[in-house]
Design goal:
Blueprint (H helix, E strand, L loop, with lengths): L1 H21 L6 H22 L4 H24 L5 H19 L10 H4 L10 H19 L10
Helix pairs in contact: 1-2, 1-3, 3-4
Length: about 160
């Protein structure tokens, strides 16, 4: 599912970039507002994708696919030039992203236990039991963040 989120984020970012071009240097209000909205919205699915993806891979795919799609949009919508050098350069970017993606463990990261813990009282539980469970969770989380020290390692 993280790949779906990432592709959605990329498509929103590409649409925003097209509207940036249409804004004519921010002189046209409607394209400028749409650009701002789409760029903002693009970060929501990107953040969801990053919950399960390595950031380096996600950003590489974001950049590469975004570059390919913006270049295609430029050629199709704005009649920008296309050359063998542009095509070759985009090909090199894609090859790099493919190799980077082959070295990652996407979708395999297991959520931490704290992410699965539901905060708040247990239905039907007593206030004291809920408070005790809450305090235990807070204590565990704090202990997990504290570096361990070994008394024998100090000079």
């Amino acid at each position: 599912m993280c790949w779906v989120w990432l592709v959605l984020a990329i498509l929103l970012e590409v649409a925003a970039t097209v509207f940036m071009k249409l804004s004519d240097g921010f002189t046209k209000m409607a394209p400028t507002l749409l650009m701002t909205l789409l760029y903002g919205l693009s970060f929501i699915p990107l953040a969801l994708a990053l919950k399960r993806m390595e950031i380096g891979t996600a950003y590489a795919v974001w950049s590469a696919l975004g570059t390919v799609l913006v270049t295609a949009a430029g050629v199709v919508l704005f009649k920008e030039s296309i050359s063998p050098q542009k095509v070759a350069s985009i090909g090199v970017i894609i090859i790099g992203v493919v190799f980077l993606s082959l070295t990652t463990n996407t979708e395999k990261r297991q959520p931490r236990e704290a992410e699965n813990r539901v905060s708040g009282p247990e239905p039907g539980g007593s206030a004291a039991a809920n408070r005790s469970a809450w305090n235990a969770g807070v204590t565990e989380a704090a202990a997990a963040k504290q570096p361990t020290t070994d008394a024998t390692s100090h000079p």
